[in-house]
Specification:
Blueprint lengths: L4 E6 L2 E6 L10 H16 L5 E6 L3 E3 L13 H14 L4 E5 L2 E3 L1 H4 L6 E5 L3 E3 L13 H9 L1 H10 L2 E3 H7 L4 E3 L4 H13 L3 H13 L4 H16 L3 H12 L4
Parallel strand pairs: 2-3, 3-5, 4-6, 5-7, 6-8, 7-10
Antiparallel strand pairs: 1-2, 8-9
Helix pairs in contact: 1-2, 4-5, 4-9
């Protein structure tokens, strides 16, 4: 396991901690591959009843490391493989969102069965601000969670969503004090993992089947549209402006 993703297991719960705190856990190719391997391993391990994802330091994830948007063997090659592992993951998946969740830091929780946010958590779907399009099937999942009008507003404006608003919109089940977030999440995960794993898996598969092939079809459309947008004059100017503002 790469040190970009830390793994601990206890009482049927596996905790995966995104571990690039100096980059606010922004993803590079190595971290995508490490998280993919961890998801695949947890899926195959009958001792794992519940998987929890959180971030090291004061951020869940700042999204894609924009210094590694493309490149052979980099994030561009590793992201689709991670999405395959995420969409195939057929056991309870819980997120403890601490601090900022931007890009994949906001779209990954849409695939989680239960999301808890710390009181300082802030989510952002930044795609219009970067001259890009939604990722990770969020153009399907976000409208399902918050409704089509609210999803359109979120996508078009790239607005920040604070923790109370995330709960109000249904993006999170509960807001917790930052200092209690991880312990409370792990306590709930142990409660889930204590149930028969066969039952948990059957329930998760039923939940996944309600979306059927729509997630995969949406992923394909988004990736095609993303490929057409990356490197356009609008995208390059948006990235220039983004870095000029210090990544805001």
């Amino acid at each position: 396991m790469s040190d970009t993703v830390l793994q601990t297991s206890l009482d049927g719960v596996t905790l995966l901690t995104l571990n690039r705190p100096h980059k606010k856990n922004a993803f590079n190719g190595e971290q995508w591959l490490a998280l993919t391997a961890a998801f695949d391993a947890a899926r195959e391990d009958d001792a794992v009843g519940c998987l929890v994802v959180t971030g090291a330091g004061n951020a869940f994830s700042a999204g894609q490391d924009l210094t590694e948007m493309s490149g052979e063997g980099g994030s561009g090659a590793a992201f689709p493989r991670f999405m395959e592992a995420l969409v195939a993951y057929d056991k309870p998946l819980v997120a403890a969102v601490n601090g900022v969740g931007v890009g994949i830091g906001a779209t990954l929780p849409l695939h989680c069965d239960v999301v808890y946010v710390g009181e300082s958590a802030r989510l952002r779907f930044p795609f219009s601000a970067l001259g890009l399009v939604p990722e990770a099937a969020s153009s399907l999942l976000l409208p399902l969670v918050v409704g089509p009008q609210r999803a359109a507003e979120i996508f078009f404006t790239s607005e920040w969503i604070d923790a109370p608003r995330a709960v109000e919109l249904g993006l999170a089940a509960r807001m917790l004090p930052d200092a209690e977030l991880l312990d409370a999440t792990l306590e709930k995960a142990r409660e889930i993992a204590a149930r028969p794993v066969g039952s948990l898996r059957a329930i998760k598969r039923l939940l996944l089947e309600t979306r059927g092939d729509s997630v995969r079809e949406t992923l394909d459309r988004e990736m095609q549209s993303m490929a057409a947008r990356v490197g356009t004059p609008e995208n390059l100017q948006a990235l220039k402006d983004f870095f000029a503002k210090g990544g805001r």
